Amino acid sequence: MQHTLSFAAVQQAKRHAKALKNTFPNLAHTQRLDKAAVELFGVRDYHELNKRYEQFINRDVDTPGGPNSISHCRFCDYRFAADVKEDQRLHRERHERFLAAVETLGYRPGSHMERKRLKQDGHHQASHSQVLADQVAGVLMVTRGWFDRSLSSAISGGYWKKHPNFDAYVAMIVPHLETIFQRQVAEIISQYGRTDGVIPKDDTYWSPR
Ligand SMILES: [Zn+2]
Known about the structure:
The chain is mainly alpha-helical and 209 residues long.
């Protein structure tokens, strides 16, 4: 098997192993997993499949050298001790959540660093540009940073399917924008509308009720 294992591929192997229960009732669960791994992916056994899957899960993990170093996953923005089993498990769980969400949404929320940059650049553009349209674009960059943080938290919390998309979020964040960006907010409202009563004006997180 030369292609990279995807999240869907491993789910597929697990489902196939379950289906094999009917045709091979005498096999143990681990044997069915082995059989599924061989039949679907041509690997030696499930252990091999799992090993490749681990590689796939960890392909965006940076681990700096030195003792007690903290690894960081660029994909799901998680910091953890890569040599601690419990941390590996927590990363894997979070990473799978992000994989499922990003695959469905076709969008990956920016990491902490990316969001910080969006907010800094956006604030700068909103307050220094002479042109209203550019100021509005700056406000939207700041808003994108908040949106990404809110969506990340929804993915970690397991309620991302209910999270509003960006356009709907902008309308909901208008009460908060009015407290910071008085000069640009009318233009934002004309483009995105306003939705009161969902996100409180002192907050930037959307959360389910
Ligand atoms: Zn990750």
